[in-house]
Design brief:
single chain, alpha+beta, 4-stranded antiparallel sheet, two-stranded antiparallel sheet, globular
Length: 174
């Protein structure tokens, strides 16, 4: 029987996006930051859709917002344009106008997946390798939708844990 892990969607998306980013040619540290940013952008969109977060009006700065920092360069990943900036350590995704540190993302994944991280990452890497890079870039989000944990609809599902089925991830690797 395939292993199932009880977990919410955010760390699953973070890890999957990082695995995809690395498969598409980003170094490991950059990929981790991109993964975290994609999950954050998706959470923000869903939170706005559910009315949990206020929608920010385009062109309007939040009160007390900082001045603009370095110009962000978007990197496409899982249907998102992830803002990035070049740092002394390489390209890093931005979250709240600050570069994400790969160490913080690794700690987050370690904490959320615990002893299952290596097994989940291995299954996701096999799935990513099963697709040519251009096809993976195009279909990565749809693949995530096929294996992500099932949770209740609407606000009830916000932050809820569901079953991540490693067998399902492995079965998607053609």
């Amino acid at each position: 029987m395939a292993k199932k892990i009880k977990i919410n969607r955010a760390p699953v998306m973070t890890l999957w996006a990082a695995v995809v980013a690395e498969r598409l040619g980003h170094d490991h540290d950059t990929a981790l930051t991109l993964g975290k940013a994609v999950a954050g952008l998706n959470a923000q969109s869903k939170g706005q859709r559910l009315g949990i977060y206020e929608k920010e009006e385009k062109g309007k700065k939040k009160e007390g917002a900082k001045k603009e920092g370095p110009k962000a360069t978007p990197v496409p990943l899982l249907g998102r344009a992830v803002p990035t900036v070049r740092t002394k350590d390489g390209i890093r995704a931005l979250a709240k106008d600050e570069p994400v540190t790969p160490q913080s993302v690794q700690r987050y994944l370690d904490q959320k997946f615990r002893d299952d991280l290596a097994d989940v990452q291995e299954a996701m890497e096999a799935l990513a390798r099963a697709y040519p890079k251009d096809q993976l870039a195009e279909e990565a989000y749809d693949l995530y939708v096929k294996f992500r944990p099932s949770i209740p609809e609407g606000e009830k599902g916000w932050g809820a844990k569901g079953d991540l089925d490693l067998g399902k991830i492995r079965s998607l690797a053609k």
